[in-house]
Design goal:
Elements lengths: L36 H9 L6 E6 L6 H14 L4 E4 L2 E3 L2 E3 L2 E3 L1 H9 L6 H4 L2 E3 L5 H7 L6 H14 L2 E5 L7 E3 L2 E2 H8 L3 E7 L3 H14 L4 E8 L7 H11 L4 E5 L7 H5 L18
Parallel strand pairs: 1-7, 1-10, 2-7, 3-6, 10-11, 11-12
Antiparallel strand pairs: 4-5, 8-9
Helix pairs in contact: 2-3, 8-9
Length: 282
């Protein structure tokens, strides 16, 4: 089963109270590099009238689903119609005669707009493997057209949409199409979840480069504790904040109960384009 907070089943949970990251402003990281002029212009010209984002990560099992669900929780709490989308999910099992995936189910539970799973997850695959492998086992070809069509249906039924990617930013779907291509076609602001563990700095910066290279706007990033025993975690967050040309939206620590509501306490997206009024949010 997928663990939305990248916890090993045998790990002892470590609770942490909400706290600001020392010496790192969650909205204006110290010495944050400025966006290139063309990226600034794109961010201004492409302001969405309603909130929508594409959530990606530095790797698989680093907290994308937890953060995506937390965003949906905050949106629903604000009173808007919010729906999550997991276009491709690998690792589904039959439940009550219907295929279910834990990540997709968590998004459904966090939102308040409920559509058929064939729309919110057009490609629900059984094998818990890389999507192109899982799809091939079922003689399925993952293509963009059904995903784009499903996204349009979700957008028409909702005020806000959170699309969660799969694995890292560049995951093959077929021989000529990957998750980065999908992100580019959707053309949504991207929120990057960085799994805080050894090696995360290089993974994060390379992912940022790949996002920007595709002409996408990096709206912000979230630090999620993937390894509770990581040494110098705060120093790593500070190093990333100095190098990522987007705001740090929050730091999610190791949670005793990794729910959408619990994680929502540690992130703040109020400054993002299209984000609804904070009135009524928890």
């Amino acid at each position: 089963m997928n663990n939305p907070n990248n916890l090993n089943d045998n790990d002892a949970p470590i609770a942490a109270p909400p706290a600001a990251v020392p010496e790192v402003d969650l909205h204006e990281p110290a010495h944050r590099p400025e966006l290139e002029p063309e990226l600034e212009a794109r961010a201004i010209d492409g302001l969405p009238s309603r909130f929508a984002c594409f959530v990606t990560g530095t790797d698989t099992e680093i907290g994308k689903t937890l953060v995506s669900s937390a965003i949906l929780h905050k949106l629903a709490a604000s009173g808007v119609r919010a729906c999550g989308m997991k276009p491709v999910a690998a690792g589904a099992g039959l439940r009550d005669g219907e295929l279910h995936n834990d990540d997709a189910d968590m998004l459904v539970a966090a939102g308040n707009v409920h559509l058929p799973s064939s729309i919110t997850t057009p490609y629900m695959l059984r094998e818990p493997a890389a999507p192109h492998i899982a799809a091939a086992l079922e003689n399925v070809t993952i293509e963009s057209a059904p995903i784009i069509a499903a996204f349009a249906e979700i957008q028409a039924a909702s005020d806000a949409v959170v699309v969660e990617g799969v694995g890292g930013f560049r995951v093959p779907f077929n021989d000529n199409f990957d998750s980065a291509d999908l992100a580019a076609q959707l053309n949504l602001p991207v929120i990057l979840v960085v799994g805080m563990r050894l090696g995360c700095i290089s993974h994060a910066l390379l992912t940022v480069e790949a996002i920007v290279a595709r002409g996408l706007v990096l709206a912000g990033w979230v630090a999620n504790t993937a390894d509770p025993n990581m040494r110098f975690e705060l120093q790593n967050i500070e190093a990333l904040a100095q190098r990522i040309p987007a705001p740090l939206l929050g730091r999610v620590p190791r949670l005793q109960t990794p729910t959408a509501a619990a994680a929502a306490e540690f992130i703040d997206l109020a400054g993002l384009p299209g984000w609804p009024s904070t009135r009524g949010q928890s």
